[in-house]
């Protein structure tokens, strides 16, 4: 029964990944470049990411647009990007010929995006549960959004460079120490 559930989720992942690859085909070169930036292939990429995100959020904070204006500008930017990127990307990034390695990396990126979407939906549900349980807890929306966006954009690089596994390992060691101390006290 467990294998059937695993097989179903594997098939669902493959189907959603194939669908996403088809939808994002015109964005391939841009996605490969963004992947390199988010994985920190150059040492100056992390400060550049934080700088760009900070500049965008400072601009939003300074302009202080209404919700309707902010959403309208964001959607307009997405529509323009969706129109121009597939047209301009091949001219900017060079040839239209994809190598097998590039196609494989594009597939991995799309698969990761599908898995990330699944996780985001889970976190979204948990966030609303938390909001129902602790309605008094308040954080400024723009600050919260800035922190979330910055963390999410830094996450692939942190993971790629082993920072996350290092700190998870440290936390596991500390937890084991605490558990051993508790066992000694109980004896």
From TrEMBL:
UniProt cross-references to PANTHER family, sorted A to Z: ADP-RIBOSYLATION FACTOR-LIKE PROTEIN 6-INTERACTING PROTEIN 1, ADP-RIBOSYLATION-LIKE FACTOR 6-INTERACTING PROTEIN
Stretches that traverse the bilayer: 44-63, 69-89, 139-158
Record's protein name: ADP-ribosylation factor-like protein 6-interacting protein 1
Source species: Phyllostomus discolor (pale spear-nosed bat)
Keyword Transmembrane part of the UniProt annotation: yes
UniProt keywords, alphabetically: Membrane, Transmembrane, Transmembrane helix
Keyword Transmembrane helix: yes
Gene Ontology BP term (one): cotranslational protein targeting to membrane
Organism superkingdom: Eukaryota
Record's GO cellular component terms: Sec61 translocon complex
């Amino acid at each position: 029964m467990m294998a059937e559930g695993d097989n179903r989720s594997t098939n669902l992942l493959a189907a959603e990944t194939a669908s996403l690859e088809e939808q994002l085909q015109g964005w391939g070169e841009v996605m490969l470049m963004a992947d390199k930036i988010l994985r920190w292939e150059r040492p100056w990429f992390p400060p550049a990411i934080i700088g760009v995100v900070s500049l965008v959020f400072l601009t939003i904070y300074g302009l202080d647009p209404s919700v309707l204006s902010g959403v309208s500008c964001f959607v307009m930017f997405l529509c323009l990007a969706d129109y121009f990127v597939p047209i301009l990307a091949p001219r900017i990034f060079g040839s239209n010929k994809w190598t097998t390695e590039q196609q494989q990396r594009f597939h991995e990126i799309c698969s990761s995006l599908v898995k990330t979407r699944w996780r985001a939906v889970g976190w979204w549900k948990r966030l609303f549960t938390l909001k129902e349980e602790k309605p008094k807890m308040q954080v400024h929306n723009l600050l919260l959004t800035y922190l979330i966006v910055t963390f999410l954009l830094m996450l692939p690089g942190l993971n790629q460079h082993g920072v996350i596994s290092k700190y998870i390992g440290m936390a596991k060691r500390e937890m084991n120490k605490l558990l051993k101390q508790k066992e000694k006290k109980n004896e």
